[in-house]
Amino acid sequence: MKKILRCIGATAYFVWKVLITGTALISTMFFLASCGIILYLVTQQDQIEIEDGAALVLAPHGSILEKSTLDPLENFFRFLDGSLEQEEYLLQDIIDGIERAAQDERIHLLVLVPDQLEYVGLNQLEDIGRAIDRFKKSGKPVISYADSFSQGQYALAAHSDEIYLNPMGGVDLHGFGIFQLYIRDLLDKLKANFHVFRVGAFKSAVEPFLRNDMSPAAKEANQQWLSQLWQDFRQDIGQQRGISEQDIDGVVEDLTRHLRAAKGDTAQMALNLGLIDGIKTRTDFRNYLISLVGRNKKETGFKRAGFANYLEEYAPVYQAPAMKEQSVALIIAQGDIVYGDAEPGQIGSAGLTRLLRKARRERTVAAVVLRIDSGGGSAFASELIRQEILQLQKKGKPVVVSMGSMAASGGYWIAADADKIYASSRTITGSIGIFGLFPTFEQSLAEIGVYNDGIGTTKMAGQGSFTRAMSEDFRTAIQLNVERGYQQFLEIVAHGRELELAEVDKIAQGRVWDGATAQQLGLVDELGSLEDAVAAAAELVGLPADQTYYMEEDKYPAELLLQRLKGTAAGRASKDFLATIVRQCMGSLAGSQSSFMPTGDPHNIYAHALLPFSVQ
Question: Of residues 409, 424, 592, 594, which has the active-site annotation?
Fold first, then answer.
């Protein structure tokens, strides 16, 4: 019923919103579509029923994120035609559901089926693992099953009391690494000039354009934090499964020997090594669950509660207080940092600064927790966001930063001045350095008989075009700007973290650190979760931690549609041509969950850590 009432209210609002713009056709479309949603929800209400003694099934598909990156309008219409599937799960939703199920007498056990999980951060695995451990303390078992486990999926399943695997499956443990494409020779053959300006011995984000391999400095830096994360990863698995870290290394390093002993059977190998507790077909596993919780009323299978339906029964933990009272605002900043407005899954300087101003002006907001999951992006946009954080603090409202999977480069830029910074030991942070990137294709065009020529009143006229060669004076100007940006970054960190400038320079240079090492270096105050950061912010202003809520921008479907239509103007295509070329190239090189897309920085200067690293 709550879902229906929310939908009716939203329908009335956005129909009115569109009507005042005069777009009657759009409003009619939304009205009819919304009626369809309401009708659908009414007919589905009787399907949400949880039987006593049921198994709560968590089977995440797609990615686990801090904030949804899906386009609301696309989802809106896909929902209507029945093609919408859940492609993302929010980290806090998963934690909330597990915590509540531990106290719910109707729930007998938790079943994890993680083999459709695609992207998950190491810190998220840690947070969910802790929630599962607390669930087990309630005396209820946790059982996992998969057709096959990637190493990220297995790390989640390792917290279970029992793990079962399909006879055709396996457990893929292979370690962590960073491997990417380097295209220096290709650019030479294409006669494309990528002008790169950077500061910092370890700022390797632009190396694919300059080299055909990873530099020794980049290898040194990456080896340090990769080794630390791998050590934490295997230690956690070992503790959960009662396996030594050396044995886990043996699983990877002696794969051929173990597989030969199992006669090529990967499932049997996993059983031999103690990674799983048994081998079962899907039918065997369903029958096993029936033996534990019984059949459902329809006699179609075991008594179960789907995770999404289960969450519908409860209000989110971090929701706006019913009464207008002092509270802590929780703001999520996830994705690449871009100048101006952002697409879903990005941090736009315009949107985030609006939210921070809203928090500053709202009398009931006493403090802010900023959850950052970003590898950075536009240096200019990062500075605009940081300036708004300073204004919040001048208003007497403390800001506590909670770092997610990554808070590096521009992500650290906006964190540096926080009153407190919390990170997971598995957070990737630091990368204090910036670079400029500007491609020109004058030689490529000349190969096909296209030239750029003309006359200007000064020697700088015509500079900054991707069809013209870059002059030495213009190149020097950009390099000086980048160097000044790096110096500014150092000063921001030194002031915010109360460190000496020379000390910051030693740990900066674009170098990436794991969260535990970052704490030792003074870049992070405490190791802890989002929950710990919320508790710290509440304590700073003398409030209970449960008076915390998500603060988000108010956007409705009609507004989103109008914004989307506005954004398709022909002029935008030509304006973004250069950014599109670079974006596609960088995106193909990154191969990671959040590929760098350099868009909109007024000076083409970026603070970004391009790390094609994945748990999977």
Answer: 409
CATH homologous superfamily for 327-438+499-608? 2-enoyl-CoA Hydratase; Chain A, domain 1 (3.90.226.10)
pLDDT at 530 over 80: yes
Buried-state track 204-227, b at ≥16 Cβ within 10 A, e below 16: bbbbbbeeeebeebbeebbeebbe
Active site residue 409: yes
pLDDT at residue 26, as a whole number: 55
CA separation, residue 363 to residues 324, 359, 374, 557, 576 (Å):
9, 8, 29, 28, 40
List Cβ neighbours of 564 (8 Å cut-off, separation of 6 or more). Answer: 73
**Hey, do 52-176+224-312 and 327-438+499-608 end up sharing a CATH topology, with the first three levels equal?**
yes
Instruction: Assess whether 529 carries a catalytic annotation.
Output: no
Among 199-203, 365-369, 590-594, top mean pLDDT goes to 365-369
CA 314 – CA 47 distance, rounded (Å): 16
| Domain 52-176+224-312 in CATH 3.90.226.10 | yes
pLDDT band, residue 27 (cuts 50/70/90):
low
CA 483 vs CA 198, 199, 478, 486: distances in Å: 8, 6, 9, 5
Question: Which range (328-337, 430-439, 510-519) has the least confidence?
Answer: 430-439
Split at pLDDT 50, 70, 90, the class of 86 is: low
Marked catalytic residue, from 203, 280, 303, 397 = 203
Domain boundaries, the chain: 1-47, 52-176+224-312, 327-438+499-608
Q: What one-character DSSP code corresponds to residue 46?
A: G
Q: CA 178, 95, 430: angle at the middle one, nearest 5?
A: 35
The torsion angles phi and psi of 526, rounded to 5 degrees, stand at -140, 150
